Amino acid sequence: MKRATLLAAASLSAALISGHLYAQGNKTQEDLAINQSRIAPAAVSSGAAINDKVAVSTLSARAIKDFKSRFTKVTNESWGRSDKGICVNFTNDGFSTLAYYDRRGHWLASMKTCGESQLPHFIRDVVKRTYYDFTITCVNIIEVPDHSAYVVHLEDQKTFRIVRVTEDGEMDTLNEYVKQN
Which CATH number belongs to the domain containing residue 162 in this structure? Predict the structure, then answer.
């Protein structure tokens, strides 16, 4: 069950971001680079299927209590309702973060978006050993109860690649896209 939840969260983030980044076929490499820097944080905030923004006073007290204890130094906090519960988009310690809660206020998962410099050295080492010629353009850190996974977006001259790295250092490719000239 835990592995299925982790895989679902990683697939969701990859699908959200890759759908936004690579849906247009006739983009130049420069257009993709410009859009990637703008869309990656936006995909986190808009990809949660937030139906409407709501006042904090109308939300589950359990979700608010858990949020306040789990995340500190929060800025730009924005709550909303999703199809299956509650989500909150915020900035925490330099990470753009999206946290998901069920309807009863239980924390389900969080997704942080960051750059290569904020990636743990062990995970960066695992990725760079295999993809040494690629540039790390974006990182999504997916956290579910008892597990974390890193979805790393890579780019070289000919391809875009999205790989998933577990806490144990296991790596697999989620998607690969060939650039069009």
Answer: 3.10.450.360
> Can you give the pTM of this predicted structure?
0.68
Q: Distance between CA atoms of 173 and 158, rounded to whole angstroms? A: 16
Q: Which residue has the tokens 């896209």?
A: 177
How many structural domains does the chain have?
Answer: 1
Question: When comparing pLDDT for 122 and 53, which is higher?
Answer: 122
| Structural domain span for residue 147 | 2-178
Q: What is the 3-state secondary structure (H, E, C) of 5-61?
A: HHHHHHHHHHHHHHHHHHCCCCCCHHHHHHHHHHHHHHHHHHCCCCCEECCHHHCCH
DSSP letter, residue 159: E
